[in-house]
User: Which sequence fits this backbone?
């Protein structure tokens, strides 16, 4: 399983160690046998959208965790469906937007502010948390039926039969995407085969590439760039070599993190490391052609090897952002690719030394 | 998902058809349409599309399905190699 690596998948604060987000999404309360249930707005405001972007980029992400528990949308009664979601702001907002004009109950689990799929993989969106929330909210006194609608992508963490045995509630897996909730409910809680498929279109592929690009914000990378620029400014290194190195490095990272994700279905090969190497080699050849005689033969070999292996490595890391890679497959490709990437980098260093001393 | 196929012949997914009770839950939870019903029981029709998320095995009350679940993420594998443990996202 994938679609789930990198910082956005890891909680930055433990349970109970964070303030819940501003409860601007609630508007009043509904009286039920176990007590008052907050009613939520189903129209997203400008500030919801702004907070959504902050959450996406990891800016004070924990500040926007939704308080777990039971919420009402519209005027739900004892027979209204119960939809379960994560307390990741973007998951919660996606669901409440889709239930506009309907009357449903929303049961928000504490997934430490992580999205449904990641949280299911880690078990925080799991049977245990679901059972705890069903009991804590006295859900069986709020509704007369015994059905919980879960997002399909929660299934890696939840065992429907365990939940039923422990709470009496039957788990029905809804569609993958919140956008299909309306159609799913209208069709008597049936999801079409299409609603059950995870997609990975070009917009999805680009949306997750930001995580990979963060390598450019790495302190060591920035330090190296600063050192090279300082060396050129002080006259210790030739400007052409420094600019060529920096340009080639940037091109290599962009090849692996931007070109590979965009062209993913059309680049030959199945292994991401291979796809990255192909694009990296093409980019390196393009650079070599455009700089002409600016580099000597050994330097050209070094550039080709370095750009190819950086692009291969960064593309390989994109497996964690994709939605169709298996762990067994990633291990298989890495056992072949990583030794080659290391060997190419070592060979490039040798070529560079030769190019300098020659 | 046209053109988006990963490496063939590697996944750990196993289905013991004899134990299948035909509840169809694996078909509902699989995000890559790996299963199909045939003769009242589940069958694997596209094993290589499996991403080892573990949803089917987790929800198989009959214990007919097994898979080593994991995250198909190179960074997690590297983290695991460096720390000498299972692949982990480091959190």
Assistant:
């Amino acid at each position: 399983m994938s679609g789930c690596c990198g910082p956005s998948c890891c909680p930055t604060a433990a349970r109970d160690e964070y303030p819940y987000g501003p409860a601007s999404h609630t508007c009043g309360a509904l009286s039920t046998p176990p007590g008052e249930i907050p009613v939520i707005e189903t129209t997203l405001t400008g500030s919801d959208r702004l907070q959504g972007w902050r959450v996406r980029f990891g800016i004070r992400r924990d500040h926007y965790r939704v308080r777990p528990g039971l919420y009402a949308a519209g005027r739900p009664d004892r027979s209204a469906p119960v939809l379960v979601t994560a307390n990741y702001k973007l998951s919660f907002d996606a669901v409440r937007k889709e239930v506009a004009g309907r009357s449903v109950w929303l049961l928000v689990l504490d997934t430490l502010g992580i999205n449904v799929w990641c949280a299911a993989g880690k078990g925080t969106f799991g049977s245990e948390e679901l059972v705890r929330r069903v009991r804590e909210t006295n859900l069986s006194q709020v509704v007369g039926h015994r059905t919980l609608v879960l997002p399909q992508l929660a299934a890696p963490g939840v065992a429907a039969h365990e939940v039923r045995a422990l709470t009496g509630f039957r788990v029905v897996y809804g569609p993958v995407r919140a956008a299909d909730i309306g159609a799913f409910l209208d069709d008597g809680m049936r999801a079409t085969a299409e609603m059950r498929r995870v997609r990975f279109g070009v917009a999805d592929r680009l949306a997750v590439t930001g995580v990979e690009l963060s390598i450019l914000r790495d302190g060591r990378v920035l330090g190296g760039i600063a050192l090279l620029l300082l060396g050129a400014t002080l006259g210790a290194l030739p400007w052409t070599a420094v600019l060529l190195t920096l340009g080639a490095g940037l091109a290599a990272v962009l090849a692996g993190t931007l070109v590979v994700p965009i062209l993913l279905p059309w680049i030959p090969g199945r292994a991401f490391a291979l796809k990255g190497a192909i694009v990296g080699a093409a980019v390196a050849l393009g650079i070599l052609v455009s700089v002409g005689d600016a580099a000597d033969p050994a330097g050209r070999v070094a550039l080709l090897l370095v750009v190819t292996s950086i692009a291969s490595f960064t593309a390989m890391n994109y497996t964690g952002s994709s939605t169709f890679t298996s762990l067994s497959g990633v291990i298989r490709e890495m056992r072949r690719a990583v030794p080659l990437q290391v060997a190419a980098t070592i060979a490039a260093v040798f070529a560079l030394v030769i190019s300098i001393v020659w | 998902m046209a053109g988006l196929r990963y490496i063939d012949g590697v996944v750990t997914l196993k289905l013991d058809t004899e134990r299948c009770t035909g509840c169809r839950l694996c078909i509902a939870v699989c995000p890559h349409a790996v299963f199909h019903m045939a003769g009242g029981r589940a069958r694997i029709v596209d094993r290589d599309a499996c991403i080892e998320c573990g949803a089917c095995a987790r929800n198989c009350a009959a214990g007919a399905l097994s898979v080593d679940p994991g995250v198909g993420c190179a960074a997690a594998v590297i983290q695991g190699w460096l720390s000498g443990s299972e692949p982990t996202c480091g959190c």
User: Anything to note?
Assistant: Chain A has a mean pLDDT of 89. Chain A touches chain B through 52 residues (CB under 8 Å).
